[in-house]
Amino acid sequence: MRRLLLTAVLLLPALLLPAAPAFAWSALGHRLVGELAQRHLHPAAQAQVAALLAGEPAPTLAGVAMWADHLRDNDPPRFKATSRWHYVGTQGSCQFEPARDCPDGACVIGAIETQRRVLADRSQPLAARRDALKFLVHFVGDVHQPMHANHQPDKGGNDFQVSLRTDLQPEPYARKHYVDGVMGTNLHSVWDFYILGSAGFGTNGAALQPYADRLDAQPWPPLTTPLSAPVAWAGESCRLVDARGLYPPGHKLDRAYLDAMRPLAEQRVRQGAYRLAALLNETLGR
Q1: Which Pfam families does this one have (predicted)?
Q2: pLDDT at residue 138 above 50?
């Protein structure tokens, strides 16, 4: 009975926690994708990116990587209109059915395809092509986060509540759920923030360059799907959910889960960066 009561106490913060924002990766993860991709742009694509992002507060791929999420605060109507562009959910399996899973192109697969066409069309206004680039940087990161291409009926892990024992301080919006070293959260947020954030580099801007240097020193990861096929990237993410056991058998996690999953998370960041660089080289490098 005492053990049951203790378990209930540990899970209580998670059970009371409302669904966290459905971001993929944290600011650190998205900026890593942008930073690594920019390092591998061809000169022509690099020049186009510089021209498109001229005037941005941080005119780099890493600097604009969180723009699509920041619309939540900076332009709520636009965020609401584009919120379905961040993910794709299939039903019961990883078989993608566009009419069911992406009506009117409103999913991360459709958004990548649409924004790439806008970016490639040089007759489009500069502002439209700039926004398309910023969307692409973010959505290519999103589609490589397994919780954003998931067949489980739990909103990408947002409804899978966990208690996570961690020394990593949560983001400000969630700090009231961090009690005595235990964070009441959900599996989506574990993949969004804690796996990469607990790597030892920190979670703020100072963490970006040393973490990117370490990841960039490794060979580019193996790529088993076409460079410019977002439907294949999403399927790859979805299959990893089951194949790599991303859902824990219980609802109590600690550093062992974060350490075990970090190599996969880092591989997905690197794969996303490689594909983003290839996509931009092909689209802008002409």
Answers
A1: S1-P1_nuclease (PF02265)
A2: yes
At residue 243, the 3 state secondary structure works out as helix
Rounded-to-integer distance, Cα 173 and Cα 180, Å: 17
Rounded CA separation 163/157 (Å):
13
Asked whether 182 and 10 are in contact (CB, 8 A), the reply is yes
CA 30 – CA 66 distance, rounded (Å): 7
Distance CA 139, CA 158 (A): 19
Report whether pLDDT(227) > 80.
no
Residue 259 φ then ψ, to 5°:
-65, -40
Stretch 265-270: mean pLDDT: 95
61: containing domain: 2-284
pLDDT at 169: 87
Q: What is the pLDDT of residues 17-45, one digit of tens each?
A: 333 344 567 899 999 999 999 999 999 99
DSSP 59-114: -STTTTTTHHHHHHHH-HHHHHHHGGGG-EE-SSSS---HHHHSGGG-SHHHHHHH
Total tally of structural domains belonging to the chain: 1
120 token code pair: 């490639």
Which residue, 61, 64, 68, is CA-closest to 38?
61
Are 72 and 21 a contacting pair, CB within 8 Å? yes
Q: CA 46: distance to chain centroid?
A: 23
Quick: pLDDT tens for 273-283: 999 999 999 99
Domain harbouring 130, CATH code: 1.10.575.10
How far is it, in rounded angstroms, from Cα 211 to Cα 181? 25
> In this structure, what DSSP letter does residue 42 have?
-
Q: Which residues contact 129 (CB under 8 A, 6 or more apart)?
A: 52, 118, 119, 121, 122
Section 78-87 average pLDDT: 94
